[in-house]
Write a structure and sequence with these properties.
Blueprint (H helix, E strand, L loop, with lengths): L3 E11 L5 E12 L4 E5 L6 H8 L7 E6 L2 E2 L5 H11 E4 L11 H6 L9 H14 L15 H12 L6 E5 L7 H16 L3 E6 L10 E6 L2 E7 L21 H14 L1 H37 L7 E5 L10 H11 L4 E5 L3 E9 L3 E4 L9 E4 L16 E4 L10 E4 H11 L5 H4 L3 E10 L2 E15 L8 E3 L1 H10 L9 E5 L5 H9 L4 E5 H44 L1 H9 L4 H41 L11 H28 L2 H5 L3
């Protein structure tokens, strides 16, 4: 029984629709276990084609190839790949080493599929290099070796998975006589170890060293010459085909090595790709930062979350009363209410500050001339109890306090009217007398009050009212026989997130109008998000261009590495293994792009924050990258790498290993 039997193999290539060229015409051949056999013949006689068929690289033929009685015809592509990995070692005429890798890395390439540890594989690879006298060159790049040394590296690589059959295609074709002799010695040594060696050659000198010479001409065997009477053993039972165990770390090593081979091109592509990702990160960071500022202001009380409820003047001509108060409480639900206040107010038309001067607001009505009652609940955020808003005086903590809270605008205008230069601190404690006015159906009604200045608050927009505790203000209104009209209710919910729902409930009754600054803020936030979305969409166009660009680069990489892919398929790499390598290379490019984009966006965002801080010190930052933004961009980068690698992956799947090995 032979280790290899070739039965009536025929192979033709189509020249056009009508013509075919026969390459092999009825080849029958038996190869024994441990035999050193040479296929001899001129160029074009079908030697290399026969080797491709024997090794399972070429499956388009007539006839049958039996390996230890197992027909290769019944193996699918994956099984043929595993068959080559487990049973065949290739030695090519042009060496077919991977030029950007070291000697050791080239030898270890097939070993990445065996599932063993890196240290085990490295030890085995060094032993093989030692067997071909190249151990001292292990870390040297293969480009720096002589032709004979390269061929010895190829032989060491062919032996990594302990194959039983060595196929050598013109292994000495481009070597000098000394290197040729060394290669033949190594191949002879392999047969003495029980391995079978098939050599393709057109060199008559080689035939003197082999056991059997098979001469081919015009696709036929014309002579079989037995050069040795050495007896051959019966072949062992075929080794069980071991499936590939291509581990993740090995894949990344190969992918990174490929990435570094073209590092400058890949870096330039990464920089170009990072532009679109930078735009997305900036859009997310700026939008998130602004929204965060608004949310912090809301939580800190700078943007009140209260709902203001007033009568709809078009639906009611009355004033707010106890029935309205009861209706609103029942409508909202007492269990949802944090507090429910009924502020009231009065308008000053004349003011006199003791020993300082006076002011007249008869013809003008600045906001600070309106005095609004503070809340019984002192925890409600207003300028009078917000530390950052108080220029002078203590925080409002007692609804029974006596005194008036005035604004920075009042002080500014008062100084101007009286040609003074009073400071907020200097006016605290001064007595203040005022004239107040109330408009009624019978005309205007005036009254007076006397109190002291206890607090000055900021009003940068000059729209802040003056304030007074409710107990004292109620006394003033009662003493002057004014009507205590309540213009609106102030409602705060325990859960501000329910504001929108409660406002809709109240507004369903046309008698009332419920408004809240949170509703306005929600509109602003939604507008910011729309702008943010538009900016992201615009940046995404650059990302799409980048995906195409990376895809083109990866496709060029496939074309440039066609022969390398052919070698990898020949030594046992499946399409999916090679696809994983190219996908990882694409991932390296996109991840580098993501890293650069994060750095660029952070640098630009930091600059924006610094500029804003110089203009508005109370704003901490308008650019803020959170984990969601970065995480979303990481996912986008992963999707980019998968899309970019999709076209090259399809190309890899279509590459025939035999054709790829001949690619120039």
């Amino acid at each position: 029984m032979s280790i290899l039997s070739v039965k009536n193999i025929k192979k033709s290539y189509s020249i056009n629709e009508k013509e075919e060229e026969k390459v092999l015409d009825g080849i029958n051949l038996d190869v024994h276990d441990g035999e050193f056999l040479a296929l001899l013949g001129p160029s074009g006689c079908g030697k290399s084609t026969l080797l491709n068929i024997i090794s399972g690289l070429d499956t388009d033929y007539e006839g049958e190839v039996l390996y230890k009685g197992m027909s290769l015809k019944f193996l699918n592509d994956h099984e043929l790949t595993d068959f080559r990995k487990n049973n065949i070692g290739f030695v090519f005429q042009n060496f077919n080493l991977i030029s950007h890798m070291s000697v050791l890395e080239n030898v270890m390439i097939p070993m990445y599929l065996n599932g063993k540890s890196h240290s085990e594989n490295k030890t085995k690879a060094l032993e093989l290099l030692d067997s071909v006298d190249l151990k001292k060159y292990a870390d040297k790049n293969v480009k720096n070796l002589s032709g004979g040394q390269k061929q010895r590296v190829a032989i060491a690589r062919a032996l990594t998975n302990n194959p039983e059959l060595i196929i050598a295609d013109e292994p000495t074709g481009s070597l000098d006589s000394k290197s040729q002799n060394r290669i033949l010695e190594i191949l002879e040594g392999l047969t003495q170890q029980g391995k079978t060696v098939i050599v393709v050659t057109h060199n008559e000198e080689i035939t003197e060293r082999v056991d059997t010479v098979v001469k081919l001409r015009d696709g036929k065997i014309v002579e079989v010459e037995q050069k040795s009477d050495r007896s051959f053993t019966e072949p062992k039972i075929p080794k069980k085909i071991r499936k590939n165990r291509f581990n993740f770390i090995s894949m990344l090593k190969i992918a990174f090595s490929n990435f570094m081979q073209r590092k400058w091109r890949n870096v330039m592509i990464s920089i170009a790709t990072s532009i679109g990702l930078t735009g997305i990160l900036l859009s997310l960071g700026l939008g998130n930062g602004i929204v965060k500022i608004i949310e912090q202001d809301m939580e800190g009380g700078k943007i009140p979350s209260q709902i203001q409820i007033s009568l709809n003047n078009q639906q009611s001509s009355g004033i707010i009363n106890k029935n309205d108060l009861t209706y609103i409480k029942n409508k909202v639900g007492q269990e949802k209410i944090k507090y429910f206040e009924t502020p009231f107010g009065m308008r000053m038309i004349e003011v006199e500050v003791e020993d300082v001067g006076n002011a007249d607001y008869t013809d003008t009505t600045p906001n600070y001339s309106q005095v609004v009652s503070l809340y019984d609940n002192t925890s409600i955020k207003v300028p009078s109890n917000t530390k950052d808003s108080i220029l002078a005086g203590k925080e409002y903590q007692d609804p029974k306090e006596e005194g008036i809270t005035l604004t920075e605008s009042f002080l500014k205008d008062f100084n101007k009217m009286n040609k003074k230069n009073l400071t907020a601190e200097s006016i605290i404690g001064k007595k203040l007398k005022g004239v107040i006015v109330e408009s009624t159906s019978e005309g205007e009604k005036t009254g007076t009050f006397s109190t002291k200045i206890i607090r000055i608050v900021k009003d940068e927009t000059e729209e802040e009212n003056s304030y007074m505790a409710p107990v004292e203000m109620n006394q003033i209104i009662t003493r002057n026989k004014f009507e205590k009209n309540i213009p609106y209710f102030i409602l705060e919910l325990k859960e501000p997130s329910e504001n929108k729902q409660v406002m809709e409930q109240i507004n369903s009754n046309k008698k009332y109008v419920a408004i809240s600054q949170t509703a306005v803020v929600d509109i602003i936030i939604n507008f910011i998000k729309i702008i943010q979305g538009l900016l992201i969409f615009m940046s995404t166009q650059a990302v799409i261009v980048s995906i195409v660009m990376i895809g083109i680069v990866m496709y060029i990489n496939v074309i440039e590495r066609t022969r390398e892919i052919g070698v990898m398929k020949a030594i046992g790499y499946r399409n999916r293994d090679i696809n994983m390598i190219f996908t990882s290379e694409s991932a390296f490019i996109t991840l580098l792009s993501l890293l650069l984009a994060t750095l660029f966006a952070s640098f630009i965002g930091f600059g924006i924050n610094e500029i804003v801080a110089m203009k508005a010190k109370e704003i901490s930052s308008v650019f803020m990258l959170d984990i969601v933004a970065v995480g979303g961009t990481v996912i986008l980068a992963i999707v980019m790498s998968l899309f970019s690698a999709s076209v090259p992956i399809m190309k890899v799947g279509k590459l025939d290993p035999a054709t790829s090995l001949r690619y120039e």
